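INTERNAL AUDIT FORM
Audit reference: QA-55
Scope: verify that the stored structure record matches its stored sequence.
Auditor: D.O.
Record contents follow.
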Amino acid sequence: MEGVPAKEEQTADSKTERALDDTEKLILRFAYDPFSRRILKEVSGPGHSYSARLTAYQGQQPMVLLLRSTKSESKESEWSLCEQYIWRPSETHVIAYAERRSADEPFVEYLLHQDASGNVFLSTHIAQDGLLRIDDVASYWGRGENSTIVAVQKSESSLPAEQGRPMPYAIDQVLDEKSARWPCNQTGSHFLALQLEKSYHLSALTIWADKCPRTYRVYVVQANQQPRQDTLSQWEKEHSQHQVWAVRQDSADQPERRPEEPKSISLKNRPGQQIVIVWDDGANIEVRESEVFVQPRLKGDIAFSGAVVDHETGLYYHGGRYRLPELDGKFTCPNPLDFLDGNNLYAFANNHPLT
């Protein structure tokens, strides 16, 4: 384990208060080591139990996670082992992950299966009946329980769908010649809302559109927060912080997109259950299919390319720096190698992570 003392941060990011009601609050405290890794998380508050979660590292790899909790703030309790990692000699490949919900429960060990890039795509464990169970950790090629692709449950628009070309054609998960069409015979702003089964951290939206507005804005919101046509302008002002994408295609410098070419829109890993597209030019919209990519809920803390994901903050730890998906995947601090790795000190893999 790292033989270095921890340092406690007193910034707004490391000491946060979250209101529970008018009189009670929870206090969160974080402590980091000299390598900027968060090793301690404390939760306390008046009238609430105290809990602390400690992560111990060996080199750059998390090894064990310890938990201490009491029903008061006296903090007089022992640390108990709640999670543990078993690593291969390679720094990016973990063999197993064990966890338990409380000190009274037995450990459940998950064998983690990774691809060559360190992505955990499947886990297995032995159930209480002695049989092997397969957990769908991240179905990159399918639509399993924890898939990276989720289906759109329903759609709502300020425009009525054309008869014979209803909304289900655009969300039936089949890329064919059938398309939903919303004709527009009036000027002004309009919207199209795509709703998912539940809330996710949304990564991207892909749309196959035969006709698409040249100017539009994209928002990610929670359930039942879709706009109404008569208050659309006010809704955009109230949800400006939820805007994730804005496009203005001027015919002078933007070629016309062919219908067979899908449009990919980054959703910046924002949490939400609905994607709202708003446009101003009174254009028709015709969609053949739509596809939503989300962040899978992984067993343990190992994420894309073997990085350690911090579930409370959404940050990814890459051994020296944290990366935030909401910043288009950029790091939160500059490259310690200065400009030796490119001109952008905050870029991840020179903005080409797949090459």
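Auditor finding: record pair retrieved intact. Residues 232-238 form the longest helix (7 residues).
Action required: none
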